[in-house]
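Morning!

This is the sequence you dropped in the shared folder:
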Amino acid sequence: MSAPHERPTLAPALYAYAKGLSDSDPDGPPPRGGHPLPGTAWPARRGGAGLRHREARAAVTDSLLPLLGTPDPAGAAAEAERALATTGVVHAQTVFAATAAAIEPPDEPAVRVLARSFARRLVRTGTTVPGVSAGLGLLSRLGEAEDVPYLCVLGLLDGLVRPVDAALAPLDRTAAALVWLIHRTRGEELRDLVGALAAGDRAAVPDRLLRLPTDARGAGPEVSRRAAEAVGLAGLLRADPDRPGLLARAVRLLARMTSSRDHHAEILRYGDAVDLYETVAAHAHRLPRDVDHRARLLTLALDLHSGASHLLPWPPGRREALHRTLLDTAVRPGETPVDPDGRRRADWIRRTARQLRAAPRDPLPFRIEVAVADPGDPDVVETRFLADGRPLVPELFGPGPGGPPEWLLDDGTLRAGPEPREVRLAEAYRTEGCCGALYVTVRREGPHVVWDGWRRPGAPPGPTAPPAAYRFDADAYDAEIARAEQDLSWTWPARRTARLISAGLRERPELLTRWGLRRGWISTDFHTPDTTVVTFDGPPLAADGTPDTEQHARRFLWRLPDDGRPSEDQAAAALRRLAEEDPRGYPEAGR
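The structure's back. Tokens below.
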């Protein structure tokens, strides 16, 4: 007998189809990546392919609004599927988003009950992806506890996981996390954890959690959040803080959630973040004093100070108290690492702890800080902006961190001049072209510097709408910009060398222009941070050693590993060499 998804002539309700597949192997693990949708899940008419996104959403809402609140939910659901088919809009997320955002739940209780019944009929008896997605969109606003089992079953279907997750999360975050993880089980360790959770084997969950990979690739920010939600990590740790390895794993997952290398600030989406922070801080002194645990704790302290964790719903004084506890625990003397990676992390701990201790205790109207991530968990170096102590970028923009100091501080970009200047403060971690950026206009207005004209092109709405304007005292603002531009306390030797070379080339641009070259990005290598990288653009050299101006310009990379000398000496030597030789001929310069 053929499997249900191989019988395209039938049109089963998608819920019944998913339930049948689940019941056919009740003791088996959830399917890796979910079950395939039946061929009948897509309406026959697909004429909406040419519609713009806004037009598609309007077509969906126009089809559903007349049916909302009708006294015959079953008939209305059948009519809704027919109406949606005529729009040609088949993408699940488009239909879900249009329904969830544009159709307000009725205020009148009786009509609200009918609307909920209509949504449930679509979810439980709908035969097409658009019909079920419309029901899910309504249930994201109208759902109740009794809807959870139906949503969990539908979440087994590939193609519906995003709308199911969005409808399920407000009702049961633990169940939503498990549905999401079913579709993201790349490694066997995560698959084993998902299997234990799906089987209800709570006794096996802690051990399976401890087997998850700890590297950034295996446990990204969202995977870390979903795993913590699925296992109920805050409660698990609170109930058994002495279980070997559990506290360290909680610290690791919490630290990963603070990373900016994802589409959202995942720590702000984790409902138990405050609870887990409290429990981790209460038991942090029990962790071994090795550099790995100390670096993770300092990562948490840094994020509480100037990162997204600052914005969690803290009771008065608790954030500051936890910050002090984690910082004090992280800097307590521990073992001295002998390997290069360990020494690099130990140096980061000393440097970052000094920064945090030197920060003003009372919030300033405007403050700039440069945050460097733990070298054991590489991330971008970001510029953070604090207004009255609150970090602006995670509050106004979710998909990425503040820009690097080389962009925002080295060239005087943030200085307030006589003419307004638009500045890009942050970019999505996958670039602006993909996922957006945050812009502000900086202008001087009498005794004030004003930040206004906020723009977030290509980005989803931020956690908080931008204010009309921030107004800072001009003298205090200028002093803070000057302090931040001159501050090197966050740098390490190779990065300091890069900044000194960059400053030298700004003062003496002829060192490159004499060779027909343009200065490019000058910083440190992401994966080998003890190597300075100088980039420059220009035509390649011909066989006789002269520039081949017939060729297109290329980008060249000159790598300078830290040789242990003072950064000032290494930068001076690099600038002298640029004055004497065409860098395209350096043996260590490549493309």
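Headline: Residues 340-358 form the longest helix (19 residues).

More detail when I'm at my desk.
O.
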